[in-house]
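[Automated response] Your request has been received and processed.

Submitted sequence:
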Amino acid sequence: MRRTARVDVVRPNIARTARGASRRSPLRAIARITGLAVAIAVVAFAGYAGERAATDPRLALASVTVEGADHTSPADVIAAAALPAGNNVWLLDTRAAAARVRALPWIETAGVRRAWPNRVTIVVRERTAVAALALTRVGSSEDPAPEFALIDDQLHVLALGPLPPNAASLPQLRVEPAPAALQPGSTAGEDVGAALDALTSLRALGFDATALSVTPSTGIEAVTRSGLHVIFGASGDLGRKVSLLAAIEPRIASKDRVVAVDLRSTRAPTVLYR
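Generated structure:
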């Protein structure tokens, strides 16, 4: 005897589903339209508020002060920053302004700070001059060329001109051939770097030079604070040569008669007299 199984097929109520979908479709459309309208309103309000803030006279740049400048005048710093007067302080490109200020010869670092509601302060740190480099003198007597270039420890040229009183204590450097085309903000060449390295090495060894020159014929020459002229020659073995000078100098009776102390040969140091 065969058994049969009954299977009940459940058919979805298509009419009911269609009626539910038809009720939800308008609600969804209304929600989408409402959301779009709100988004447009928010964007429009933000644009309006931004425009009002950008042109708000209470936020327009009113004053610029400078801190940290000594060799550079505040007027030069402000001019280099080129902050547009009357513009909204909070929309200024402060990074670009600081970069323009750093392009000034004396300026090492620069930052632009804003303060509520419309004030700006430019804070700078200046470079330090470590030597005065003697230059080739060219030009007429009515318009003489600069005599010295002040340089920092990175060979950055800070200023050109006659040696100012506040730089009189700086050691003077001379190289041959003397540089003739330097400008404030430029970098001195490798020969100047070698002279500055020699000066730094001698100072580290306790030799306080007021002037130092490097020439192809005699190498390194320097003058002490007491006015003694010393010929070191090549840069090698400077420590030995400084030690020899320390032993020789006390034995010199009349330094005013000494032309130079020649230490180019450590085996035969020589005191040259007039």
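Summary generated for your ticket: The first strand starts at residue 63 and ends at 67. The domain at 57-126 is CATH 3.10.20.310 (Ubiquitin-like (UB roll)).
If you did not submit this request, please reply to this message.
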